[in-house]
Amino acid sequence: MYKEDSRYSRGQKLVETLSSTAKARHDKAINRLLVEWAKEYGDRLDPVITDYLSVEAATHMDIIEAAHADSWGPSSNDDWRQVAKEIAEANPMVTRCLEFADATKREGFRREVLTSLPGTTKMNMQREGTLDSFVKDRVAEMMDDHIANRTA
């Protein structure tokens, strides 16, 4: 955790030392990252983590370059997407946040499936030993649909 906090502090100090022009370019680059994170992770990434990443991103070489000249830094949408993923995936807090969000969503889908089944059907499936696999398969389908709709 010390390394992440150190990068965060360096990011804050770096942003404070930028000229007004460089600060405007930096803010533009950070906004671009925020858009890419929203596209990639949707509501799965907590806003607190996103704020942390945006400050930490100031130490990433592509963002430093983008802050100092418009012609430097990522140039295409794919480049920006790659930089955003690189920054996010380098932080273990992002992984934990995404895992928690997915587990929470899965649990919600599990409850939804179980409540949608009539009591007699649930009892019969439980006796036959098919309830758990049915719920697991249905939750997997619902997660796939959720991810497909989020990225569409």
Report on this structure.
This protein has 152 residues and is mostly helical. It is built from eight helices and no strands. Helix 1 packs across helix 3 and helix 2 packs across helix 5. The mean pLDDT is 85.
Largest sheet: none
**What is the number of helices?**
8
Helix content range: over 70%
SSE-based structural type: mainly alpha
Strand content: under 5%
Give the overall form.
elongated
Descriptive keywords:
152 residues; mainly alpha; 8 helices
Could you give the topology of this structure?
Elements (H helix, E strand, L loop, with lengths): L1 H15 L3 H22 L5 H10 L4 H8 L8 H13 L2 H25 L2 H10 L2 H21 L1
Helix pairs in contact: 1-3, 2-4, 2-5, 6-8
Summarize the structure.
The chain has 8 helices and no strands.
